[in-house]
Write a structure and sequence with these properties.
Elements: E1 4-5, E2 8-9, E3 12-16, H1 19-35, H2 40-61, E4 64-72, E5 76-85, H3 93-96, H4 110-117, E6 120-126, E7 130-140
Antiparallel strand pairs: 1-2, 3-4, 4-5, 5-7, 6-7
Helix pairs in contact: 1-2, 2-4
Organism: Priestia megaterium Q3
EC number: 2.7.11.1
Protein name: Serine/threonine-protein kinase RsbT
Length: about 140
């Protein structure tokens, strides 16, 4: 299987510093989700999520990273995506997760949209110390 080392499945990290890095993260996410056999619709959800999280890093924190990792349990295989930055953080996470909320004058579908696209969503933020967002998309194992 792609993305394995001798020790097992290795996470893939894409450092986000420029808009080109956002494109790279999306391409790697497409490769991962395709290799894992996600449906076309779920691949689009995964790529949209990676794009949104990468853009947020670039726009609000300037630098950070996207980590993609294959995870498994007895019934499912999944793709875990972790977005980490050391930016200003989010003062009010609950407000930021409300549909329609925006700090940039955009449509306000960012984090609330990501939460809806993925099966699991966890966020932690400390003001002036950055954000850590973990999301997972699961798929049933092929028998």
């Amino acid at each position: 299987m792609l993305f394995q080392s001798d020790e097992g499945k290795e996470p893939l990290t894409v450092e986000i510093h420029t808009e080109v890095d956002i494109v790279e993260a999306r391409q790697k996410g497409r490769m991962f989700s395709n290799c894992l056999g996600f449906s076309t619709l779920d691949q689009a959800r995964i790529i949209t999520t990676i794009s949104e999280l990468s853009r947020n890093i670039y726009k609000y924190a300037t630098t950070g990273k996207i980590i993609m990792e294959i995870i498994e349990n007895q019934l499912e295989i999944g793709l875990k995506i972790i977005a980490i930055d050391k930016g200003p953080g989010i003062k009010n996470i609950q407000q930021a997760l409300e549909s329609g909320y925006t700090t940039s004058g955009g449509l306000g579908v960012g984090l609330s949209g990501v939460k809806k696209l993925m099966d699991e969503f966890t966020i932690s933020s400390q003001e002036d110390h950055g954000i850590n967002i973990e999301v997972i998309k699961w798929k049933k194992r092929n028998k």
